Amino acid sequence: MTVRTIEVDVLARVEGEGALTLVLDGETVVEAKLKLFEPPRLFEALIRGRACTEAPDITARICGICPVAYEMSSCHAIEDALGVTVGGTLRELRRLLYCGEWIESHVLHMVMLHAPDFLGYPDAIALAKDHPERVRGALGLKKAGNAIVAALGGREIHPVNIKVGGFYRAPRRAELDALLPELRAARDEAEQTLDWCATFPFPSFARDYELVSLRHPSEYPMNEGRVVSTKGLDIDARELGEHVTEYQVPYSTALHAGIVGRGAYQCGPLARFVQNADRLTPRAQAAAERVGLDPSCRNPYRMLLARGVETIYALDEAIRIIEAYVPPAEASVPLVMRAGVGRAVTEAPRGILYHRYVLDDAGLVQHAQIMPPTSQNQRGIEDDLLAMGPMLAALPLDQATRRAEHAIRNYDPCISCSTHFLKLRLEHKARP
Amino acid sequence: MAKPKLAVWKFSSCDGCQLSLLDCEDELLAVADAVDIAYFPEATSHVDPGPYDLSLVEGSITTPHDVERIADIRARSTTLVTIGACATTGGIQALRNFGDHPAMMAMVYARPDYLATLATSTAIATHVKVDFELRGCPIDKRQLLEVVSAYLHRRKPNVQRHATCIECKMRGTVCVVVAHGQPCLGPVTHAGCGALCPSFLRGCFGCFGPSDAPRVEPLVDRLIALGASRGEVQRLFSTFNVAAPAFRDGAAHAAADKGDPR
Questions:
Q1: Residue B243 — φ and ψ, nearest 5°?
Q2: Which ipTM was obtained for this model?
Q3: A207-242: pLDDT as tens digits
Q4: Which of A221, A229, A357, B162 gives A212 a disulfide partner, CB atoms 3.0 to 4.6 angstroms apart?
Q5: Chunked in runs of 10, what are the mean pLDDT values of chain B (262 residues)?
């Protein structure tokens, strides 16, 4: 067997820059290194000495795709440090905001970034030539999610209306009511999009993952809950940092993460669905059943369908919250600065996002730790590629390369978050 | 006639400004008809080696490799437009320019020696000629469409350089400084967002960077007279455009009195 090397300069359709090296010895992948090249931006260092009330705006700039997630985790963590609870309508508005981000982020990934992998197109523009109604429909769906974020937050990317304690201004009833026709239409479109995705050819592949997500007593989890896993983890979310170790590898600017004593785990839409399917709305449950997605699923390629089910759920939930909305008397709860440690986990579109802050008595940040979902998923993505040896070895090299890239995109990796430019290098090692 | 070639490049940034193009849900397919999307890795695996008619550049220069890459991109681009605060002023990561970079690296990484980084985060124009700078953290997608459209039709983009304060007046928003005594950078911040923050009863925090000929010192004095602490005003000028000279002046003026840093 001769040595064959494939180099793909840019792994596209991911948020950020990185590279992959795979070394194949026959049917065995002997080395899989996902290299995230995103230059470090040092947020955990540059936030030291800042007022804790600045954390939502500053940490939002870690990621333009999921700024709401950063705003939510930082708000909850700092409220934990200050001993403040945000409940009632303000809590519902935060949930509505998260619904908007889940919808726009999930649909962007499903149709614009990931569907081209399944159907063999370079991008959604080319896909639109053959499937114009699906791409136009998805753009409308994404727009509906963005409309929620813009109505509540002022704009789609880095919304300005979110603060520790609540909002700067609570929306008027009419501002939210105006969204309802678009959201109801989007719900039908979301069902059609999911049904279309279910027709894609899914490679048969599964692994015995430890799937980790939040779990809430009554809700599909977004902002609150315990952290639970399919292998028995069940902890107060604030203790996540004590159960996970972060470590640095020489080839990546993103820190890796593992559960103490067990190692790699996966978070994201599949982990949430598997552990919380009973908390979905009847419409979302029916959609999951229709496309054959159930909590026994361990095929990462089918995470696409979990995103589709969650999109339907988020639309149901957004409509529920808006229909019940009565503007609150105050847009935020008052804050009193004090020294303390605050920790929180919320569910970003790509999985659990942990923030921890140490504040001094004036509320200035003394120390910050942020664990984004993609860095938590990094080790597991490599493990997927290691396990794909026989599948990759059976394919011609160009197809093997595409299959490996596709496997990475299952996780909708957001490399801006974890620290972007994914270079794929696939080496076939010569047999002795 | 061949369609003009559009390329989208990323340096140190959050991806939000290039995402603005994908957020043009109503216009994206029309844009894709009008131009040949020759390089845009966030959206397509199709790669055209160039040269390019219009390059949109997001992000700031923070590694030795970045310095080489931007020179190469400039050489292959007829027109180069920077999009957003990172590319135009260095972004929030330019806070490192005013701190102890090795110490900051050590706060985040156990082995800083694994990483090749520069001690500064700098604007694209520090390294190569830039034809137009679009402001904002993030940019406004309507302005982005205007800039792309302008360069396709070989005209000057219609992007106003006045202050956000003017946008507030045009919009009829009650002044948050006058009515609520809130610190607001609207008088010295570049227009473009449509004066969003004051419409949410919040002072402008300067995410579009300095306006044309801003007068920062009288504003700093006024905000302090209204009760803002010097530390608060200094931090207000030290966010997403911290390295823009006028905002440096504002932060320095606020800090001039070495009294209570909070």
A1: -90, 0
A2: 0.95
A3: 999 999 999 999 999 999 999 999 999 999 999 999
A4: A229
A5: 91 94 91 92 86 97 94 97 98 91 78 80 98 97 95 91 95 95 96 97 97 95 94 96 96 76 45
pTM summary value: 0.94
Residue A278: give its domain's CATH number.
Answer: 1.10.645.10
From chain A residues 33-72, the ones with a CB under 8 A of any chain B CB are 38-46, 48, 50-51, 54, 57-58, 61-65, 67
The answer on B235 and B132 residing in a single domain is no
Residue A253 touches chain B, beta carbons under 8 Å: yes
Q: How far apart are CA B242 and CA B250, in angstroms?
A: 10
Which A residues 8-37 touch B at CB under 8 Å? 9-17
Are residues B53 and B102 located together in one domain of the fold? yes
Q: Which residues pair with A365 in a beta bridge?
A: A359
Last residue of a domain, one of B129, B152, B175: B152
Question: Does residue B188 sit within a domain?
Answer: yes
Size of interface A-B (CB pairs under 8 A): 188
Q: How far apart are CA B234 and CA B231, in angstroms?
A: 5
47-86 in B: which are within 8 Å (CB) of A?
A: 47, 62-63, 66
Q: Is the domain of B65 the same as that of B16? A: yes
pLDDT at A416 over 50: yes
Structural domain for B142, as ranges: 5-152
- Do residue B117 and residue B91 come from a single domain? yes
| Of B46, B107, B115, Cβ closest to residue A253 | B115
C-alpha distances in Å from residue B195, one per residue of A385, B136, B171, B198: 48, 12, 8, 6
Cα gap A167→A153, rounded to integer Å: 9
Domain boundary among B152, B173, B193: B152
| Contacts B25 to A, Cβ<8 Å | 139-140, 142-143, 146
